[in-house]
């Protein structure tokens, strides 16, 4: 019921906009969507994408406990 009311309000809003304004709103929504997708990544997503320079000793950067 709430989704239907919201959809109706959105459709009414878009009918008031011209094409350029509607495209700006759509671009903004796509930007938000991309931002949310970026936040959902984890360290596992980086597997195989990180490369160290030759001779770099990543083990020396570890903290000793």
List the helices and strands and how they pair.
Elements: H1 2-16, H2 19-39
Write structural notes for this entry.
With 65 residues, this protein is mainly alpha-helical. It has a domain of 33 residues. Helix content is 55%, strand content 0%. The protein starts with a helix and ends in a 26-residue tail after the last helix.
Features:
65 residues, mainly alpha
Give the mean pLDDT.
Answer: 77
The helix/strand series, from N terminus to C terminus, equals HH
Count of helical segments?
2
Distance between the termini: 56 Å
- Report strand %: under 5%
Shape, principal axes of CA atoms: elongated
**Level of helix content?**
55-70%
Query: Compute the gyration radius: what is it?
Result: 23 Å
């Amino acid at each position: 019921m709430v989704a239907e009311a919201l959809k109706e309000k959105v459709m009414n809003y878009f009918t008031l906009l011209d094409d350029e304004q509607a495209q700006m709103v759509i671009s903004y929504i796509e930007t938000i969507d991309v931002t949310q997708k970026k936040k959902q990544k984890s360290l596992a997503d980086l597997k195989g994408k990180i490369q160290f320079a030759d001779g770099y000793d990543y083990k020396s950067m570890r903290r000793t406990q």
